[in-house]
Structure formats: structure tokens, C-alpha cells
Amino acid sequence: xxxxxxxxxxxxxxxxxxxxxxxxxxxxxxxxxxxxxxxxxxxxxxxxxxxxxxxxxxxxxxxxxxxxxxxxxxxxxxxxxxxxxxxxxxxxxxxxxxxxxxxxxxxxxxxxxxxxxxxxxxxxxxxxxxxxxxxxxxxxxxxxxxxxxxxxxxxxxxxxxxxxxxxxxxxxxxxxxxxxxxxxxxxxxxxxxxxxxxxxxxxxxxxxxxxxxxxxxxxxxxxxxxxxxxxxxxxxxxxxxxxxxxxxxxxxxxxxxxxxxxxxxxxxxxxxxxxxxxxxxxxxxxxxxxxxxxxxxxxxxxxxxxxxxxxxxxxxxxxxxxxxxxxxxxxxxxxxxxxxxxxxxxxxxxxxxxxxxxxxxxxxxxxxxxxxxxxxxxxxxxxxxxxxxxxxxxxxxxxxxxxxxxxxxxxxxxxxxxxxxxxxxxxxxxxxxxxxxxxxxxxxxxxxxxxxxxxxxxxxxxxxxxxxxxxxxxxxxxxxxxxxxxxxxxxxxxxxxxxxxxxxxxxxxxxxxxxxxxxxxxxxxxxxxxxxxxxxxxxxxxxxx
Amino acid sequence: xxxxxxxxxxxxxxxxxxxxxxxxxxxxxxxxxxxxxxxxxxxxxxxxxxxxxxxxxxxxxxxxxxxxxxxxxxxxxxxxxxxxxxxxxxxxxxxxxxxxxxxxxxxxxxxxxxxxxxxxxxxxxxxxxxxxxxxxxxxxxxxxxxxxxxxxxxxxxxxxxxxxxxxxxxxxxxxxxxxxxxxxxxxxxxxxxxxxxxxxxxxxxxxxxxxxxxxxxxxxxxxxxxxxxxxxxxxxxxxxxxxxxxxxxxxxxxxxxxxxxxxxxxxxxxxxxxxxxxxxxxxxxxxxxxxxxxxxxxxxxxxxxxxx
Lengths: 545, 308
Known about the structure:
The complex is a heterodimer.
Chain A: H1 2-19, H2 32-36, H3 38-48, H4 58-68, H5 72-75, H6 78-90, H7 102-121, H8 132-166, H9 169-172, H10 184-196, H11 204-209, H12 211-219, E1 228-229, H13 238-242, H14 265-269, E2 275-276, H15 294-312, H16 334-340, H17 346-350, E3 356-358, E4 371-373, H18 386-389, H19 401-406, E5 411-414, H20 420-424, H21 430-434, E6 440-445, E7 448-453, H22 463-467, E8 476-479, H23 491-497, H24 510-516
Antiparallel strand pairs in A: 1-2, 3-4, 5-8, 6-7
Helix pairs in contact in A: 1-6, 3-7, 7-12, 7-15, 8-10
Chain B: H1 10-26, H2 28-37, E1 40-44, H3 47-57, E2 70-75, H4 91-103, E3 108-113, H5 119-126, H6 128-132, E4 138-142, E5 149-153, E6 162-166, H7 167-171, E7 174-178, E8 180-184, E9 188-190, H8 192-195, H9 204-208, H10 212-222, E10 227-236, E11 247-256, H11 259-268, H12 283-290, E12 303-307
Parallel strand pairs in B: 1-12, 2-3, 2-7, 3-4, 7-10, 8-10
Antiparallel strand pairs in B: 1-11, 5-6, 8-9, 10-11
């Protein structure tokens, strides 16, 4: 029964993950698992010092845990399910060493929880490092998803001759764009390490490290269902060995309640059928206390505050308002953004063009894994607003399409010394051609037609930067200058206030001609007299003779 | 008895003449006869019926697509724009041609493009996939991977020696180019010949390394559509090729076998960037004409004008 529920939950998690694409309907909560996670919510709310609507979803899990107990870890947690599956595949036949320091190790998760919460109070969001749902979503985004696409494409390539033979047109041309990410290897290593720890003890992660498990165990003692052992018990201690959480005390009739995840393995394996999980109201008992000393409490509190201090002790902190990264459209102001973002990677998974990439150290410890746009690789598409829709903490605000397109993320800057037109007189107009907002126009400069950026029309989408044919660094790059970051309120209004116009007048290029001040010649060119493109010819649009 | 050898009776003569006049009055026979005589058909009307009529005027689809053949249609669906931006071919024009091909006995119709923007969004926003969805045998595909292309030589190439072209285009005997009429910031206008760039793999060098106007003419020596149907139901008179820009609703369909002639006529239909131009003033068309790829002076063309 437990296995089926776990499998179903993992399947649901994967399905919701897959559905996070640009076509996502507004009402569909693809980020539901992340929303339900009270640790992520608590962390974001504490760090932001403000309420976030979507975080209220986590009250469901809090309520359920209060009523039922710490069932989440055994039945719902997709990371727990992954651990169980890999445990079964890899370590089933392995005799694990006995960890003598078991009770000390158990404390680690509470200490970590305290560290994360206290550092959140200082405004440094670190919980993403170890929250199981954020971790798994990240692993899915940076490893599972790209791998799956690679495998599917290999499979399609392998069967292509067959599809062609059968005349299945669509299948024989099917190919999914391969997503690529920075930090895939790092993410895999972290997840692999998490799984490898099971070699030492079953559910090592859940027992000793998981801060979400720690939070849930703190609120679980009120739960209705608790392990009870009847008098039939002959103290054979088989239950003690089978308990994946080590929740059975040395006296097998007793239970470390906060550790019990109600998986009922003990009841299933008990030869005397002496173990029950009846519903009953009871709190307390010597084994239900969380085993963390006052000293440990204060030490971890201090640890968290120190981390918070260290996190802010970097030139990145005073530079936050001048940060160099292009953030997703609708991202909160940088300080609030860093505090709220839980680095789950959901925005990067769903990003239509794959431009959203994790940051490494560009904005210091506080900015690890936060999304940035890599516009040289791909632009931000004006038909897509999914990143905000799937953001569980609304570090990227969920915006209607029109609002999103007014959430200016930067401004394109033309580097004349690298531009093929400015520097080499070439016939290149790709940036102008591709710009969806007509923000790049050609103007006569000293008799030559030259591209220039009209900043008030540029919303930073980056089509120009991506398409620029100059090798290496683009000759036109989007910089964060002019970005609009609002905590609340309308981007359209703000753009109007700033006199920005992202929907240009029709016939935009006309004014090139008017500006030029040249009279338009009507004389016909003789056949064969093609002007070389190097000659100045400002009075005509490009391509005409 | 062999009737054909018998002299025509007066009665027969009168009957035939009357019938001829009757057909002549309806105009349709003139259209059918136009097939080989006219260089261009210029039909005004709504996208679907003007396209239908233009096809008839060019001699019907059977002139181009034989039974059991695979036909390739090349619309412009390179941008993720809805039809009203004028940056992509009208979906009804594409669907009408596709439908005609299937009705004419084509084995299948492939509607192909190598899009500039994200393919799935292009397919969705242009409306072309939706319009062709319910026509059996018609497949709308975007080919964004190099493995779907094959390199060929360009024997008459000046700036291009080789080019990688979509395999299906090389392997099929029928290619119908269905460009949209729009301005283009590099080549002046983007019509049929410029649209051929949607069938090749590598295009960036056209802008950075080689002369794009020469390259387009090179391309036109090896990719030769049997028919070009220019969708000028809307013309993007500025801001092209991606828009937004000034969209003029001129409700024209221009069809012809000669790719330069169609494009050259297309240049004359609206002022581009506020100025009137002739085909000769468009560099890549002039080069193509000089290299013997088609007629450029529209006053020397036989043009059938009509209304659908």
C-alpha cells in the first residue's frame, strides 16, 4: 500500500514537473509540491519579512501533519520515494554498518533546521541547499529532464529509418530541442551524494539530515496515529531492525515518536502481529522529545546568524542594486528576489527558450542557483510568461502576457567597435530584423546607415544579442540598465510613467528617411550598375538600389 | 465513322460558337486557357478564394502536381506572429494550396520551414498548423536540426559553393513557394527568392561574411520552385521581416512560374518604407534577373488580373 502511494506521488511530481511548460494554463499549479512544502514557505516568508500568497498552500501539509503525524516522509515525499527506489536497487543486499552515534547524528537535522531558519531571519536564504523538494526539482531540471530529452531523441533517431519506411511523416521528423544548463554536473554530484549516504543507513538523509523532516517531526507529536505495541510482544527486536528511520527504541515497545514516519514496516514484519497504529489522542512520553540540548540550540542559532552575517559580508551586498545579471521578467527587486527565491529550478525547466540558467557565483553566496538570462544563448520570448506562473514563492511574479512584456529586464547596448556595420561597413541587419519591438533602427551617420538602439523601445528580450553573427561575445548586449523591478503594481503603468513604448508605431522605419534629409532620387539605375554595398547610400532602405 | 474528318456543318458551327461565347462571358475558360500564356496571375479577393482562383489561372494544380507525387509547400512561418502582423503567410492561403494538391492526387503534402524563432511557438502563432490540421495527407513540419538537411553543390554559385538543404525538398519533384509579401531590413523586400532561405541550414554567414544579395541568387540557381504563390493579402510595408510594422491590406494573390517575375511584381504592389520601387531596384532580384533566373520588367509580362 505504502509503495503504491509513494509511486503515485513520485509519478504526480514528475507529471506536474513535465507540465510546467509555456502552455501552462493559469489555474494549474504545476509547482504544487513546492507550494506545499512548509519549510520553503517559512523560509521565504521569514527572509522576505512579508506574506506570500502561495505559501499559504503549505498550511495544508502543516494541518495534515498536525492531525495525522509525520506521514509525509513515508508516503508523499518524492525525494523519499527516490531514496527508497534507489535503496532497493543498489543497497538491498548490503549489510550496513551499525552507526553507534545514531542519536547524535539525529540532531543534525534539527541543527540544520535552526541554522536555516536563523539565517533566513538575517535575510540570507540558504534552505534551498537541503530542502528535499527544492533539491529534487533542481535535480529533475538540471539532470533528469535534459537526460530524458537526450534519450528520447536517441530513441527517435534509432527508429527513424523505420518511421520513414512506414511513411510516418511526423514521427520521422520529430526531434525535441535539447535543453542545456550550467551546473548539471554539480547538481548530479549533490544528488548522487545524497543517495550514496544510504549505503551507511537506510534513509540516511531522512533520518539525519532532512530539515523538512525535522520541521515536520516537530509538529507531529499531536498526530492521531501512533505506534502501539501489545502485550504479545516477545521483544525479538525484528521491528527495530526493519524500521527505516531507526524510530524503535531499545525497548521495542517504545517509539521515538518524532522519528516515526508511520510506514508500518514494523507492523508488517512483526512475527507476533503485536504492533498497531490506532488513532488516539496522546502527547508526550520520554521518547517524544526532540533530542537537542540547550547548548546545541544556541550553537546552531549562532551558526545560522553567523552564516547570515557572512553571506552579507561581500561586495555583492552593497552592489545588489547595481547587480550585473539579467533577471527574469517580473523578478522582485534584487534584494527581495534573493531572499524569496528558493532555487528550485522550476522556472528554468519551464522556460520556453532555455535562456534561464542558474547563477554560480556571479552574485555571491546569496545568489547561488538563482535564475539569470543567458541571452547570448537564447532570448526571452514575448509569447511566454511561464517563469512567473511556476514560481512557488513568487520571487518571479506571475504576470499576464502584456504586463510581462512591459517588465523590462534590461537594455541592449551596441558595441560599435565590434559591430559589423559600424566597424566593417558590412550589410548586416540581423539585430534590426529580429527585434520584436523595432527598438533598433538605422540612421544616417556621416553618410552611412548605422544601427542604433532606441532605449525607450527596448525591453531587453535579447533577440539581438542572441542572433548577432559576430563570433564570441555579441556586438550588441543586454545590460540590466533600465530594468523595471516592482514588488507590486502594474508594469504597464510603470512603463508609461517612464515613457517607454514596447509597441512601436506602424511604419517605424519611415522616419529614417525623413530624418536623413536627403531627397529621394527617382532615376532608374542602368542594368548592371549595381552599387557595391560599401558605398554610402543613406537615402534608401537597405536592399534597394 | 470518323466524325473529326467530316466538314463542320453550319449547325455545329453555330453551336460551338455560342458555347464559346458563353464560356468566354463567364470568364472561366479564359482562366483555364491562361495556363501557359500568362506569366502571372494577380487575383484580388479573400485569401482562400483568391488563392483558388490564382491556381486555376495558372492552369490548375494538375499542371504542377501529378498523381502520387509528394508536394512540398514552403510558406513563411519563421516568426511567432499571428497573421495580422503580416510577417508570415496567411494560414488560409497555405491550407488552400495544400487542399488543392491533395485533391489533385498528391500522395502527400509537406508544409516545411526552418524557422527563425522557436519552432513550436511559430507553428502555433502563425495558425498554419491549425489551418492544415484537418486536411488528410498534409503535414506541417519545422526542421530545426542539421540531420534533416543534406549538402548539395551550387555549380553556378558566385559566393556560395555548397549549401545544406532540407532533404525532403531535394527528394521531391514539386516545390511550391508560398511567401508573404514583406519588407526586409537587409534585402529591401522578402518575397519568394528571399523565402528560399527558410529551406537551408546555415544562414548567419549570409549576413556576416558574404553578400546576401549574391547568395540569394546563388540559392535560386539550385532551389527552383515549380510555382510561386505570393501572399499579398497583407503586405508588411515596413518593419519587416519580423514586424511589427505597417501592414497594408491589399488582398492580392500573385502566382507565377517565374520566381523573379512574381517577386518583381510583388515589389510594385505597395510603397515599401513609404517609397515606390520597381523590381529592378531590388538588388537581389536584379542579380537574379541578370543571371538568367527570370524576367524582371513587369511591363513586359503577360498578366492576368482578376477578382475572386
